[in-house]
# Entry
Amino acid sequence: MDRRSEPNRSAIYATVLVAFLAISGIAVVDPILPAIGEAIGVTHWQVELLFTAYIAVMALGMIPATLASGRFGFKPVLVAGVSIVGVAAILASFSGDIVQLSVLRGFWGLGNAMFFATAMVVLVSLAVDREWVVGLFETALGLGFAVGPLLGGLLGGVSWRLPFFVCGVFMVLALAVAARRLREPADRQPPVRVGQIFATYRRPAFVALCVVTAAYNFVFFVVLGYTPLFLHLDVIPLGLAFTGWGIGLAVGILLLGHRLAHRIGAVQTVGVAIAGLLVCMVLFATSGSTTQSLVVLVVSGLFMGLANANLTDLALGLGGGDRRLATGAFNLVRWGAAAPAPILSGKLAEHSLALPFRVGAAVLAAGALVYLGCAHAMAAGHGERVLWSRWNRAAADAERAPEEPVGEAY
# Structure
């Protein structure tokens, strides 16, 4: 498709730019976690509060943010979220203890919830080509996870406070872009009720996707939140290590994720990602050297990119016609499952440095079992087939059903 036929390109690119800056703000903390712990004298599990507070508030904030977007419109909620992130990041750079930092990271998470609950819906509503805009959004996330650690490592080499401050400045710039360029979708939709969001969980294929995503996101934040402490590297080398991970993530999204989905289907691509990531978790748990761990880190980013390139599109397809409801319900599970991962990893590490990875592997293995049992239903709902669906009579019946696949209904 000719991208020049997109009538809202400037608003789409502005939203994607803000997404890139928001994700960079998550990843900027990675390289400075050990430095923060050393500077303010806290244990591993206490420094992991910076991630858990952020993600927990972000998960809980998804529902009210979705409700607010239905009442006040997408742009006001999105702009308010960007403002909160900017203020929280700047104030975090002046914090004196872990409690202040965790509270401010919580506010940071609330701001990001307001952004992520609205951004994807805005993008899909403004775009003619949904696949292009979802890919663009996921690309911004991949690049943000690549650039964020690099900034965190370079700036954190000067002071652990500097990455927070610079991130806040970036969000102020993003606010200027958002206020000028973001556009409300032309078709104003009616307000959303809480019951409508939770009614989305009545769709079996969507619930199965949520369970698989919950296991995946738990492991995602075991890697993102705990590996910086596991590697025992200085700030700048740690920043470079996670830049490599972010590049792997970006390659998985940009170059491989959608291409593989076009060949074998989005559902089977997610299966490849889950299997590869499960192997990486086992390799992390049995790693005998820092070099091996670094290689596994980059490879894990590649498999995470394959998953990230397809999970959002699958959720929009399987969650029903109202994208606001699908986005709210999916993100509640996605981020809610991730919230315990960092702090649990910190506590487990007190017993064994490899134990967080073993637990992560067990959680992902449970998700893989759900995937194997329900992939045929997810594929049928998205207009695809899985290789083993011919062995499953229910899947075959679903695929022969006359109704249009949910994923193609827009």
Observations:
- DSSP finds 17 helices and no strands in the chain.
